[in-house]
Design brief:
The chain is an alpha/beta fold. The protein has eleven helices and nine strands. Bound molecules: coenzyme A (COA).
Length: 253
């Protein structure tokens, strides 16, 4: 049963967490599904991604009940590592991601929102990192990507002191980019997507990669991807491949 829905709608990919009865809390199967959906998006024709959660929450975090079945080693090896793989895949999508925060984003929900390139929040929502209050750490990059993207001090306030912010406070602190009235985030996300789609597709994709690299998000891959594209576009590759096929030495001139 799919709980991360993907709709490919021309240039727009819609990724929707679909576990409303548990406030879209992410269990291990959903984390794996998120990673698989990201691969689909990456290979699609989509140029922008709209990420949302069905029901009243955006995402209430990792599935707390799932933890009780995990020993410490499995926790580190699977829960944390698989979460990183999925969230990295989302943050590193070539397409910009817009998060529709039309409900609370807590713990893993905040970490998920942090992967987006733009966060639009409805006025009633709350944002926070409750993990240490549960005796666990924010382990899906809530102390790493969240610090890079939002700054260490606001993460200290949420993660160490348990402060939970309103949408307006989150806006002032740079946790979200825009606050709209309740019910208006999906339309605001569509508007932002339309603005982005009016811009140069290739330039937008490259610019996202460069910004990510500047933030330390994926510097190594970005450098090699850009160099690889330049090398693959040169005559050298054509000659190298032809020589291999014809079983001769390449003539690079
Ligand atoms: N993991 C597993 N289940 C969760 C969950 C989570 N992180 N967050 C909510 N749920 C479940 C609840 O257990 C409840 O299930 P039930 O109906 O079978 O009892 C259902 O989702 C609805 O949640 P409920 O608490 O009844 O909704 P609410 O509107 O009263 O409260 C919250 C909303 C977000 C304040 C509250 O659910 C909450 O504090 N959740 C935990 C948030 C958290 O600590 N996240 C960090 C984990 S990394």
């Amino acid at each position: 049963m799919s709980r991360i829905a993907l709709t490919l709608d021309g240039p727009v990919a819609r990724l929707t967490l679909d576990r409303p009865d548990k406030l879209n809390a992410l269990d291990a199967a959903m984390v794996d599904e998120l990673a698989a959906r990201c691969r689909e998006v990456e290979r699609s024709q989509a140029r922008v991604v709209i990420l949302s959660g069905r029901g009243k929450a955006f995402c209430a975090g990792g599935d707390i009940t799932a933890w009780s079945g995990e020993g410490p080693e499995a926790f580190g090896r699977h829960w944390i590592r698989d979460g990183h793989a999925a969230f990295d895949a989302l943050a590193r999508l070539r397409q910009p991601v817009i998060a529709v925060l039309d409900g609370h984003a807590l713990g893993g929900g905040l970490e998920l929102a942090a992967c987006a390139d733009l966060r639009i929040a409805e006025a009633h929502i709350k944002i926070g990192q409750p993990e240490t209050g549960l005796g666990i750490i924010p382990g899906w990059s809530g102390t790493q990507r969240a610090v890079r993207r939002f700054g260490a001090q606001v993460v200290r306030r949420m993660a160490l002191f348990g402060e939970v912010f309103s949408a307006e406070e989150a806006l002032a602190l740079g946790l979200v980019d825009r606050v709209v009235a309740t019910g208006e985030a999906p339309a605001a996300a569509d508007e932002a997507a339309a603005r982005l789609l009016a811009r140069g597709p290739r330039a937008t994709e490259l610019t996202k990669m460069l910004i990510n690299a500047a933030e330390g998000e994926e510097r190594e891959r970005v450098i090699e991807a850009l160099a690889g594209t330049v090398a693959a576009a040169s005559d050298e590759l054509a000659e190298g491949l032809a020589a291999f096929r014809e079983k001769r030495r390449p003539d690079f001139g």
